[in-house]
Specification:
Blueprint: H1 17-36, E1 40-41, E2 47-49, H2 60-63, E3 67-70, E4 73-77, H3 82-91, E5 100-104, E6 107-109, E7 121-130, H4 136-151, E8 159-165, H5 166-174, H6 185-192, H7 195-198, H8 200-207, H9 218-227, H10 233-239, H11 245-260, E9 266-268, E10 282-288, E11 297-301, H12 305-308, E12 316-322, H13 323-332, E13 343-349, H14 355-367, E14 372-374, H15 381-390, E15 393-399, H16 401-406, E16 408-413, E17 419-423, E18 430-431
Parallel strand pairs: 1-5, 8-9, 13-14, 13-15
Antiparallel strand pairs: 2-4, 3-4, 5-7, 6-7, 7-12, 8-10, 10-11, 11-12, 15-16, 16-17, 17-18
Helix pairs in contact: 1-4, 4-11, 8-9
Length: about 450
């Protein structure tokens, strides 16, 4: 039996006002960090040509597409933003002044197995730098991630980044088990990215599958998995090829992170490879220190993506930061703020004869930039006070026949209870002298 049409599809969300306030609060922090780091916001269509995502390395994301055919076009809901971004860069490649710093907060769709913090639709804060070949770009992006964590008031030790270099792994394997099969490197990375999910034995079995895309011997597969266990940069340097450029880049990156004051929040981890085939250099993932959630964000360098899609070669690096996972971590840490509705004022006409005056007053307040709810009915004053308080209004203005005759609206500050009169044709408020002569009516 199918799902009820009155419920959202499994893995998706409705955003009621309280959820929208939380989402807007989080997105405002994303935008603030991007602004601090000098990034400009971009966006692209939610629907793209499916071919943009259908790569050949066996990535799970290809099988997780929401895709369909319409008028002889094969289309897909975007599962990630990077290919769309690459398409946009290619379209203006001759006119852009590199490096460019762009960010986005796209909605993404993947039909995948759901766990805590993993949904089939989610929003993802992306920050990307195109046209900068040095690891100074990676350092900026990692600093932005930590700046966001600090802005969200997470404890400094609540989030850690693990990083590695695809280039370093590629140097090592192409000098050994993949010497004669360089084309197997991309599918190999897709398989070993599953290490935390399926375990070492399963990864070795897939690497050694004679019918699979890699086809290592059992011993070679075991050696590859052993290489992934290195968690120390000095040990990685000892095992790296002589005069390794990738290792030099990693060492430089850690030096830069030290200057940012973030080196203690980053650790080398050879098992981090990321599951997307287009990564070419440094790759990284941010996780909660307790290890209870999926990766909060991940990214890395993808220098050949534009060329793969038909553009001119241009270097690029970026990350994606999911909204659902960080929401879970903030909840665990008690860092989700109370976000009541904020309404500057509510305006009420106590009878229909005062509707025109109420409309004019609401218009005056709105022109000042205030958030004003104009009651569409004519509630009694006690009900209006209750409604305004529940709506989160700071002030209630009301106009009855008596107020209209005197050319004023009555106003009450709902926090202090103080009352004042507001001239209907003026813009300044005049506090009442002494006690109110018009107590609230029953």
């Amino acid at each position: 039996m199918g799902s009820s049409p009155l419920k959202p599809p499994r893995g998706t969300r409705d955003f009621y006002p309280e959820e929208m306030r939380a989402r807007s609060w989080l997105f405002a922090r994303f935008r603030e960090v991007a602004h601090r780091f000098g990034f400009e916001e971009v966006d692209a269509p939610l629907v793209e040509h499916a071919e943009l995502y259908q790569r050949k390395a066996g990535e799970e994301i290809v099988d997780q597409l929401y895709h369909f055919e319409l008028h002889d076009r094969h289309l897909a809901l975007r599962p990630e933003f990077t290919p769309s971004l690459a398409r946009m860069v290619i379209a203006r490649q001759g006119a852009l002044r590199f490096p460019i710093r762009w960010f986005s907060i796209p909605q993404c769709w993947r039909y995948e197995r759901m766990t805590r913090g993993r949904r089939r639709e989610h929003y993802q804060w992306n920050m990307d730098i195109w046209g900068e070949p040095s690891v100074s770009a990676e350092a900026e992006l990692l600093a932005a991630i930590f700046t966001c964590a600090d802005l969200l008031e997470l404890p400094r030790d609540a989030l850690r980044v693990r990083l590695n270099s695809r280039a370093l792994l590629e140097e090592s394997l192409r000098g050994g088990v993949l010497r004669d099969r360089p084309e197997a490197f991309a599918p190999l990375c897709v398989i070993i990215d599953k290490l935390d999910k399926v375990g070492a034995a399963s990864v070795q079995e897939q690497l050694a599958d004679a019918k699979g895309p890699v086809g290592l011997s059992a011993g070679e597969a075991e050696d590859v998995v052993a290489l992934l266990s290195v968690k120390d940069l000095d040990e990685a340097k000892r095992l790296a090829p002589e005069r390794s450029e990738a290792m030099a880049e990693l060492e430089r990156l850690f030096e830069l992170l030290d200057h940012y004051g973030d080196a203690d929040r980053v650790a080398f981890d050879a098992s981090v490879v990321r599951g997307l085939a287009y990564y070419t250099g440094v790759v990284f993932e941010a996780n909660d220190t307790a290890g209870e959630l999926r990766a909060i964000c991940g990214g890395g360098r993808y220098d050949r993506l534009a060329e793969t899609l038909g553009g001119k070669p241009v270097t690029a690096v970026g990350f994606g930061f999911g909204d659902a996972v960080i929401h879970e971590l903030l909840a665990d840490q008690g860092k989700l703020p109370e976000l009541p509705r904020r309404l500057d004022a509510m305006v009420v006409a106590l009878d229909e004869g005062q509707r025109d005056a109420a409309i004019a007053l609401a218009g005056t307040l709105r022109e000042r930039g205030e958030s004003v709810e104009l009651a569409t009915g004519t509630p009694r004053l006690k009900r209006a006070l209750t409604d305004a308080d529940r709506a989160g209004a700071q002030r209630l203005y009301w106009i009855g026949a008596e107020e209209r005759e005197r050319g004023v609206a009555r106003a009450r500050d709902l926090a202090t209870g103080e009352e004042s009169e507001h001239p209907l044709e003026g813009e300044s408020e005049h506090p009442l002298e002494g006690e109110s002569e018009h107590p609230l009516e029953a």
